[in-house]
């Protein structure tokens, strides 16, 4: 009887241990599933923060690109607000005039080609009525044959230089190449830095050119 009692007690203890193991597995499985799911909710804020950083970076890049597309021009003469302005690259003189507050009442539009595109560091002079100018930057070169055309060395193309006595196509290409490499000419004397143009050549050219 004692042996049967011991066997019974042994089996009973085994059942209790087995039951505890099952309960432990259930509880452990619950926590495992719970902690496995919850990290997905913590990833979303990190992804959102990364997206915001990308958007900020893109905005700064776009802003920098826009700044690079701006040029500086000097507007003088018969405009409401003469001065130096930042305008869009490839803007035309009409747009620059509007930026400077518009034309003055005594402006002479007949001497201005408002459709001409401007270049960086270009000076635009708007003459007044009755003022005689020699084709300043932006003027219309399609006037009478008596008018002498002045070529702006900072904006002229090879075709523009063909009207200049003393500068052929090859020398014009050298002038343009120098301008593209070193930037805009500050004075006419800077032309002497171009190969093939010396002081004597400049003396003959200065009445036909401007900056």
UniProtKB/TrEMBL annotation:
Keyword list, A-Z: Membrane, Transmembrane, Transmembrane helix
SUPFAM superfamilies in the record: RuvA domain 2-like (SSF47781)
InterPro entries: Competence_ComEA_HhH, Endo/Exo/Phosphatase_dom_1, Hlx-hairpin-Hlx_DNA-bd_motif, RuvA_2-like, Soluble_ligand-bd
Domain of life: Bacteria
Stretches assigned to the Helix-hairpin-helix DNA-binding motif class domain: 159-178, 189-208
Pfam families referenced in this protein's UniProt entry, alphabetically: HHH_3, SLBB
TM stretches of this protein: 16-34
The keyword Transmembrane helix belongs to this UniProt entry's keyword annotation: yes
Protein's name according to its UniProt entry: Competence protein CelA
Species this protein is from: Companilactobacillus kimchii DSM 13961 = JCM 10707
